[in-house]
Write a structure and sequence with these properties.
single chain, 188 residues, mainly beta
């Protein structure tokens, strides 16, 4: 399967937008991520996927901790800033941003709708990325609505849908590509 087809299909999956941060060796590191998830309630685990080539992975490994800030719909410029390669590891990258310090010292951009402060629990290789698994030590909540990412664009959350649903018989059919014909012959 071509990578372009995979990427095209993945654009249909909307996600929230977060910034992964760590303070280590006198520098604040940050990267915009959309591959963040809560993983477990016992223990309290979160996960975020980051490119294996990112210098952020080495900083998280060395620090043994990281913070994930869920961005609000008013923070698209911040998301773009830390999505730019290299922007999240420049010395003084946070000097013009109001930040709060999470209990482990990780920077949390002011105005985030929520944040998770974690100790590195495990790192799992996943293709060209690493899944950083953290045990949540502290969390916080702000106000406002989350920033979303869909079809390669930042978006706002729309209005809630009414609680009624269409009967399954009224849903439009999904077009699937033709399947291979059933195998015939010996051993089929």
């Amino acid at each position: 399967m071509p990578e372009t087809a995979f990427r095209s299909a993945a654009r249909h999956w909307p996600t929230g937008v977060a910034v992964l941060t760590v303070r280590w060796a006198g520098l604040e590191h940050a990267k915009t991520v959309s591959s963040f998830a809560t993983l477990s309630l016992d223990p309290l685990l979160i996960g975020v996927a980051v490119s294996r080539r990112s210098p952020l992975t080495a900083a998280v490994r060395a620090a043994g901790r990281f913070t994930v800030a869920v961005l609000g719909e008013h923070q698209a410029a911040l998301a773009r800033r830390f999505a730019t390669p290299g922007a999240g590891r420049a010395q003084g990258g946070f000097t013009d941003l109001p930040v709060l310090d999470a209990p482990t010292g990780g920077p949390v951009p002011a105005g985030a709708t929520a944040w998770f402060d974690a100790r590195l629990h495990a790192e799992l290789p996943v293709g060209d990325h690493l899944l950083l698994v953290g045990e949540a030590l502290a969390v916080g909540e702000g106000t406002g609505r989350p920033l979303l990412h869909h079809a390669a664009r930042y978006r706002q959350l729309g209005p809630e849908l009414p609680p009624t649903e269409l009967p399954l018989t009224e849903l439009p059919p999904t077009e699937l590509p033709p399947t291979n014909p059933p195998a015939q012959g010996v051993g089929a």
